[in-house]
Amino acid sequence: MKYHADEKGDRRLFNRRYRQNSVVSKSFGILADRPECYVYSDTLGCVITGLPRDDVAVHYSCRRALSTIQDVPGSVADNAVGKDLLAIVEGVADLGAQKDIGVTGSFLVGCFNERSDIDLVCYGAEGYQAARELFGQRDLIRPYEDSDLNQLYLRRAKYLEGSSFDALIKQERRKLQGLTTGSGAHVNCEPLRADDDRTFARVSSKEVGEMSLLATITDHTEGLTTPAVYGIRVTAILRSSIDEPGSFARRIGFVRSYLGAYTGAFRAGDTVHLSGKLVHTQGGILNGFGIELTPWNVSALYVANLVT
Question: Which of the four, 8, 229, 237, 295, has the lowest number of CB atoms within 10 Å?
C-alpha cells in the first residue's frame, strides 16, 4: 500500500488527502480493519497484503502512463522534477523503447510534488538493455559520484542495515539509478520480468524458519530482474530460529528476493550476508531449500548485504 487516506497527508488523489507509505509491513496496520486484504500466498509461503479483485476501481499501466505524459504533459510540465521526466521520456522515445519502459510511483498516479523521485520500471531483457542505454546518457542522468555518494548512502542505509559505506556504494553502483541533470532529483529504474516470464508460475513455498548466514553468490543470471533469484553456496550460518541449522547449510541453494533493492546488486563470486526466511520450494527452477527476502514481514528486517 503506497498511499493511504490521511487528512494530514501531503498528496492529493481523487479529491482526498493521502499520506505516502514507504514501508510495506506498515500495510498490515493500515489494513487492520480489512481482514479480507490479508492473503496467504502459496508461491511465497507467507501472508501478504492484497486487494479483492472486485474492489479494484482503477488499474494503472506504467507504460501507458509514460506515453500519456509524453502526449499530454499537463501539470508535469509545471513541476521542476516533471520537466526532467519529460526529457527522460524523450530519451525513451529516441531509443524506441516505449513498450519496454514505464513510470511508477507518484508520477504514475498523479500525486507528485517538488520532492518526488522519478521511479521507472523496465520489462525483460530488451527493457533492461534499453534502460542501461538511457542511464548512460549523461545529458539526462548523471551517476552518483564524489559528494553525492553520501546522499546515496543516507538514502539506502536505512534499508541496508549493517552495510559498510564502501560495500553499500559498490552494491548500489550496479543498479540503474542516478540524479537528473536539471533539478538533481533521484531517478531509478527497477528491472521487472517480462510479461510472458513463467519462472514462478508453478512455484510453491513453505516457510521453515528464519536464518542469518554468509554465502557466496554462484550464479546471478536470474538476479537482474525482480523477483531476483541468485544461486548461493552457504559458508557460515550466523543465527537461526530452527534447531541444528548446520544440517541445512549444504542444502540451501538459492536466495529469492521480492525486494527491488537487491535486484542486480550481486555478481557471481560475491560474498553476501543474508538474513531472511528459510523456505522449502518446489516447482519451476526452484527446488529445495532457499532464503527468501520479502517485505511482508513484521518481526525482523530481511536484508542482503555485500561483504567486502
Answer: 8
Dist CA 190 CA 130 (whole Å): 12
Distance CA 219, CA 138 (A): 31
Domains of the chain: 3-52 (no CATH), 62-192 (no CATH), 204-307 (2.40.50.140)
> Strand, helix or coil at 35?
helix
From the list 139, 175, 142, the residue with the least C-alpha distance to 156 is 175
191/175 Cα distance (integer angstroms): 9
Measured distance CA(187)–CA(85) in Å, rounded: 9
Q: How many CB atoms lie within 10 A of CB 130?
A: 23
88-137 pLDDT, tens digit each? 999 999 999 999 999 999 999 998 999 999 999 999 999 999 999 999 99
pLDDT tens string 43-98: 888 888 888 889 888 899 999 999 999 999 999 999 999 999 999 999 999 999 99
What string of DSSP letters covers 149-198?
Answer: HHHHHHHHHTTSTT--HHHHHHHHTTSSEEEETTT--EEEEEEE--TT--
- pLDDT of 15 reads 73
Q: What is the DSSP string of 103-153?
A: EETHHHHT---TT--EEEEEEHHHHHHHHHHHHT-TTTEE---TTHHHHHH
Residue 252 scores a pLDDT above 90: yes
Does 28 have pLDDT greater than 80? Answer: no
Task: Name the strands in the sheet holding 3-5, side by side, starting at the edge strand that comes first in the sequence.
Answer: 3-5, 16-20, 11-13
Using the Cα atoms of residue 227, residue 91, residue 179 and residue 105 in order, give the sign of their dihedral: negative
Predicted model pTM = 0.86
Q: Are 253 and 288 in contact (CB under 8 A)?
A: yes
In sequence order, what are the residues at sequence separation of 6 or more whose Cβ sits closer than 8 angstroms to the Cβ of residue 278?
Answer: 207, 208, 209, 210, 211, 240, 242, 248, 252, 289, 290, 291, 292
Inter-residue contact 186 to 179 (CB < 8 Å): yes
